[in-house]
Amino acid sequence: MKCPACQYNGTRVVDSRPAEENRSIRRRRECEQxxxxxxxxxxxxxxxxVVVKKDGSRExxxxxxxxxxxIRACEKRPVSLEDLKKIVYSIExxxxxxxxxxxxxxxxxxxxxxxxxxxxxxxxxxxxSVYRQYKDITVFIEELQDIQKRTKK
Length: 153
Prior knowledge:
Helix content: 40-55%
Number of strands: 6
Radius of gyration: 23 Å
Largest sheet: 3 strands, antiparallel
Order of helices and strands: EEEEEHHEHHH
Number of helices: 5
Structural class: alpha+beta
Strand content: 15-25%
């Protein structure tokens, strides 16, 4: 590591500690020549997860966007924000551990609905009705019947 003061190519680490909620390491360094002290940060370089939308456009996966959709679906429902954040975290973790670089928005929606159905059935139906864009009441009723069958098992 080059010293930012004198450009000497030798520094030593004086102190290291976790930073950014253990997602990086903060290091205090000292130049071996001029004794100038400075701070560096070390973090994992992550490959961005890209979502392919229905119209073919691509955008980076946004956990905040998924969380906003979940919050909307859970309005006036007894579901904590922590539970919703756990769903988002779980989906992100599953996608990253699978090594996925691109995923269809449909697949993300299905993952959200799968986890939301275990947390709150009403919120699940709300999310599904918007996500799947039900055209008529018969499709909606079929979805409700599927939920009833699952809960009876």
